[in-house]
Design a protein that fits this description.
Elements: H1 2-22, H2 41-81, H3 85-94, H4 103-121, H5 128-132, E1 136-139, E2 143-144, E3 158-167, E4 172-180, H6 191-197, H7 201-205, H8 210-223, E5 232-236, H9 240-252, E6 263-266, H10 267-274, H11 286-292, H12 304-320, E7 329-331, E8 344-346, H13 349-365
Parallel strand pairs: 1-5, 5-6
Antiparallel strand pairs: 1-3, 2-3, 3-4, 6-7, 7-8
Helix pairs in contact: 1-2, 2-4, 3-4
Length: about 375
């Protein structure tokens, strides 16, 4: 298989380098310029000899490290080749990997996983942030007002604003944030909405309105130095959260959509693209992604914070598996025709790269937003 061939080639190269580093040097190999007069020639030669020996030792040490790493990968590949399908699927479950597919597919998945894991542990692979370019990812999953009768013209308002912070290099959740929001267009929640989300009328009545909550979220970003010292991207499970819930909430309150929310990572697209070689590549919801990763939903469905936390678990799994998560959707205003969401457009790779560079360039110029009562323009340039 391709993974085996890659490891064999790397192993042979490391062995050749190892033998070369230990080959004896022929006398007279190093030529030195004859000095014009007697001087420090013995000292100079001695220093040159010490430098050569030091360089050879360092090279040998590096080669030995790589040789040991690739021997571990080769041994792991051999072990996997000897297992039956049931044992391979059990190993997938232990490593929280999807176990779908025939034996050849499962073996390849495990080989890629262990190769990445061993190389990263040995420091021979760059950290995940060097792949995505973002140091942090913020997973959001809003809960909004709704009714039993579905309508594209329903004036949704955010009633739960959660955020889960993922450290990309560490591939783990490091913080979370949540506020409930008081709706103003439809201040009374429908029974359907309360039953679905578990959010009560009492909870939203004692909460602050959307512009105030958005200011609190911006303050949390500033506290975490996100968009100031650390580049970050928003992650969602589909386009609904930004293109419908956040966009409509901003419209209702006559405020601009924050710049950091104009582009985001639709993790569902990343999931399908990264695992596209699996026998079943289509995913319809968060539960589908969790099942294929052999993960169980933790918490209560349609609780915004619990949904966001489980989406973040999918994100960390993707990062650990070596996926490159890039911005792949953007807000497109005014909308285009013949689209399911008239204000959503796909982001091609070149545009995603340009957006990332812009985010990184803005870090050096970013300043803390003014803490005044007039600071209600939530279209801050934090990205």
């Amino acid at each position: 298989m391709a993974v085996d061939k890659e490891c064999r080639d790397a192993l042979k190269n490391a062995e050749r380098s190892d033998k070369k580093s230990y080959s004896p040097k022929k006398p007279g190999k190093i030529e030195t310029k004859k000095p014009e007069a007697d001087g420090d020639l013995p000292d100079t030669c001695e220093k040159m000899s010490e430098l050569i020996i030091k360089d050879e030792n360092e090279s040998s040490s590096c080669d030995n490290t790589q040789l040991s790493v690739y021997k571990r990968i080769s041994a792991k590949n051999h072990f996997l080749n000897m297992q039956d399908l049931a044992s391979l699927k059990k190993l997938c479950a232990e490593e929280n990997l999807t176990n779908t597919g025939k034996k050849a597919v499962v073996i390849k998945r495990l080989k890629e996983y262990f190769k990445t894991k061993i190389l990263r542990e040995a420091g021979l692979l760059p950290p995940p942030s060097s792949l995505s370019g973002y140091e942090y990812m913020i997973v959001i999953d809003f809960e909004a007002t709704c009714d039993r009768e579905k309508s594209t013209n329903y004036p949704h308002e955010i009633i739960e604003f959660p955020a889960v912070l993922v450290n990309v290099d560490r591939c783990e959740i490091v913080d979370s944030w949540r506020r409930y929001v008081r709706p103003t267009v439809n201040p009374v929640l429908s029974s359907f909405c309360t039953d679905l989300t578990g959010i009560t009328q009492e909870t939203v009545d004692k909460s602050e309105d959307f512009p105030t909550v958005l200011q609190h979220f911006q303050a949390w970003l500033t506290e975490k130095r996100l968009g100031i010292e650390h580049a970050f991207a928003i992650v969602t499970d589909g386009p609904f959260d930004i293109a419908r819930f956040l966009y409509l909430s901003c419209q209702h309150n006559q405020i601009e959509v924050p710049t950091w929310a104009t582009r985001w990572i639709n993790v569902k697209k990343c999931f399908v693209n990264f695992y596209r070689k699996d026998s079943r590549s289509r995913v319809n919801c968060l539960q589908d992604m969790l099942v294929r990763m052999n993960l169980k939903f933790e918490g209560t469905p349609h609780c915004g914070l619990d949904d966001a936390t489980n989406i973040a678990r999918v994100v960390t799994r993707l990062l650990k598996d070596g996926a490159k998560l890039r911005v792949n959707e953007r807000l497109d205003l005014p909308g285009q025709k013949d689209r399911r969401f008239y204000n959503v457009a796909p982001v091609p790779r070149e545009e995603a790269t340009a957006w990332l560079k812009k985010c990184q360039q803005n870090l050096s110029n970013a300043e803390d937003p003014p803490h005044s009562s007039e600071s209600n323009n939530n279209s801050s340039s934090h990205r």
